[in-house]
Amino acid sequence: MDARFKIQATDLDKFLEGKTLSKSKFDLTRKSIIYPTLDKFIIGDGEILDGEALQEEIFPTDKFKFDIFLSHSHNDLDLAKRFASYLDSKGVNVFLDSYIWKSADGLLQKIDDKYCQDTDGKHYIYKRRNYSTSHVHAMLTMAIMEMIVKTRYSFFIESSNSIILKNLGNTSRAMTLSPWIYEELKIMKTLIAGSDILEKSFSATEAMSLEIAHPAGTEKGFKPINLSELYRLDKCVGREWLDNLNPSKAIL
User: What is the Cα–Cα distance from 183 to 77, expressed in whole angstroms?
Assistant: First the structure.
């Protein structure tokens, strides 16, 4: 990764408003939710799963080459898709995880149903669930780190969905409630994978929603791309858009 940038969702939405985008890979039906049987990944004579093969099946990192890693809130997925489609029209390849990878939760469901169920077949064993979650999230974390390292630039869509400032006392620091956004931004800044991953455990009754605020760290080290810069880049033809990005001071 050569540089990292941040862009305000409001500016991006205004810039993309009214633009007619040609059909792109992001307009296609999203990937199938069908997962291969876990038996395919068993190695040896026991029940040991090949983690490397499993990771490459669910979170492949070598099948495609991307120019930009795009980080965003799940609630901004439609905006991220529109931006990715726009960049695709410029010949810029964007990594948008939900259109490239299968779901970590879907994989966890497969593993937990096979390895973590209690004898009654209705509940999961808490310790086994924690263990399976650790494995899957570790694979996902390593895959995210690989993709960020391999792409030329990283972009972060900053919005009220991804960054919060209110209800946090007197702090003026940008914070996020998403463990995945926290992780991606941390990797972007340090290229060392974080380990602050949250998972809600099984409960027979409805539990209180857990929220933990993590420092986003976007105040420094992320070069802002404002609306005027978007319009300047829009004049570029094809991959000139990528080449005319100015990474100066993007990494501090």
Answer: 18
Q: Tokens 């857990």 — which residue? A: 210
Mean pLDDT of the chain: 83
DSSP summary character for residue 27: G
Instruction: Report d(CA 4, CA 246) in Å as an integer.
Output: 10
What's CA 218's distance to the chain center, in Å? 16
**3-state SS assignment for residue 51:** helix
Residues present in the chain in total: 252
What is the Cα gyration radius of the chain?
A: 20
Residue 162's CB: how many other CB atoms inside 10 A? 24
Are the beta carbons of 161 and 154 closer than 8 angstroms? no
Burial class (CB in 10 A: 0-12, 13-18, 19+), 35: middle
Q: Which of the residue ranges 24-28, 43-47, 137-141, 195-199 would you say has the lowest mean pLDDT?
A: 195-199
Distance of alpha carbon 123 from alpha carbon 137, whole angstroms: 21
Helix (H) or strand (E) holding 138: helix 126-150
CA distances from 199 to 6, 189, 222 (A): 27, 24, 28
